[in-house]
Write a structure and sequence with these properties.
392 residues, Butyryl-Coa Dehydrogenase, subunit A, domain 1, Butyryl-CoA Dehydrogenase, subunit A, domain 2, Butyryl-CoA Dehydrogenase, subunit A, domain 3, 3 domains, 12 helices, globular
Amino acid sequence: MTSDSAAYSLLTEEEREFQRVVRQFMEREVRPIVADMERAGRPPQELLKKMGEQGILGCFAPEEYGGGGGSLMTRAIVAEETARVDAGLDATLFVSISLISRHLLKRGTEEQKQRYLVPLLAGEASASICLTEPHGGSDALSPKTRAVKDGDHWVINGSKTFITNAPISDVFMVFARTSGENRRAKGGTAFLVDRDTPGLTIGQPFDKLSLRSSPTAEVFLDNVRVPESQVFGEEGQGFYYMLEGLDYERVFEGASNTGIAQACLDLAVDYATDRQVFGEHLASYQMIQDKIARIATGVEMSRVMFYHLIRTLERGEDCTRAASVLKLYSSEAAVEASREAVQILGGYGLMEEYPAARLYRDAKHHEIGAGTSEIMKIIIARETLKAAGKAK
């Protein structure tokens, strides 16, 4: 980001300095091992611990839990800078830190915070959210996973799929219906289930197109018994917590998309100004300039909007429509940026030794994950009609 970017003014000087520190860490510690992480299908535990020690994971959390006490923007900076180098690592951190840690900070008991939050912020543990099921992801209020009370315990049965971090997680936040009707928020409960709980098993890691350095698998729950102390928040309110976090999740999707698109811009500019064709640098051709201009525009618009919405979240304001607009626009901008980067590199863009192919794969994930583009359009239309007083 240059100082003439409209987004530059949305950061404090302290946040800009933090951004420089995080960027240096990513270049020094992460970029050299991206290929290794892609092959292994997971980030090394040593890297997560190093990020914890450097204060990168807990930058936004209170100091009493090992955090840095910074703004939510600092967490957004980490997300963007991580995705700029490896979107798979960002996905792993997003679930453990942006989702689980945030939930624990907001509603966890003190015992749950000490047991789960502190290790997550230190990079000593990972976590998963178990929401999506094999029969569908967008209809999250109609899970087949059920939990029933049995004395002072709950018994959970069901299965979850596409669960980020499942192969490496130490704790799983499982959403199950405990009462009420399908497609209704009331009656869902969230449970914190330890990895070694009898009846909980993890499937083989998926062989994915995108985000290969972030492990994903199925989770099976067969008569899993958890004590009352493992209920997260209030009984019957779990789906409300999930819905409440959707705006937050989609804004952070914008952070990842911006990071991916910026990586595409960096790659395209470097290649186009170095590569010569017919005696001229590739960047001198207007059709290449058109591609670079379009990528740069997508990066700028995505970043400005996502920074603005981070500030909106910091103020505690709702931004359902705007978050969906950001998620839709930034994911499409990242996909276009990655496609054009591949095109600019030509044959080299198809080679795995260059990052263009990985960026192309990773960008596509964000048109599907955290709500498909089609779902985003439905939300945007619904909220626009509602604001105009035209909702049916």
